[in-house]
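USER: Note each token:
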Amino acid sequence: MTGGQECWMDFEAAFLFLQQWWIAIPLVMGAMAAYFFAGWRWAALYVGLMPFINWSFAHVPTFEIPDWFGGGMFQPLAIITGLILVVRDFAQRELKHWVWAAMITGLLLSMLTSWIVVVFASAAAFLISETVDWAVYTFSKRPLSQRIMISSLASAPLDQIVFIGLASQIPSQAGIFAWGTIITGILSKLLGAWIVSQIVAARERQDMKSEMNPA
């Protein structure tokens, strides 16, 4: 056995040890608590949702999509992935450019809950979509409700295509790259973003009325 193989086996053993639930859960909760008590509540939720979503990719049952709609499998929690894109938007309002640190924290925590290949696929997808979101929130001056939808419309397709494309390289997930999977994933993410944007828009209208009609 070569030195490289021994190093890989040591890394794999450490990786599997840390993935045990009684170690992984306290580490994830501890990281969330650190962000929360620092005053970054959205960032705390963001770093916690990332490992949860990556865990669900392998553990939550999927449903077959008819061939006439592109085939593949539907992940029921895809709508929560859409909410992650929105939560990330709120986290960026808290952390500004430091939202990248929260993303890296979430990806590192994802190593405790999912296959390493899924983590890499998730990292690539989040990096690309995060760049798009960062550009929208940095340069757009539109109301928050509109920026949520603009950023989601731009980032959700990229996020879904990159993630599914890379995750399909896992032998056990070789058949997941199908247009039905991609389309339903994008629509689910946009639905989650739309729900939140409508809630935010209602609050914006209420705030505007309060400003126009002060007590």
Remarks:
- Strands lie at 63-64, 73-74.
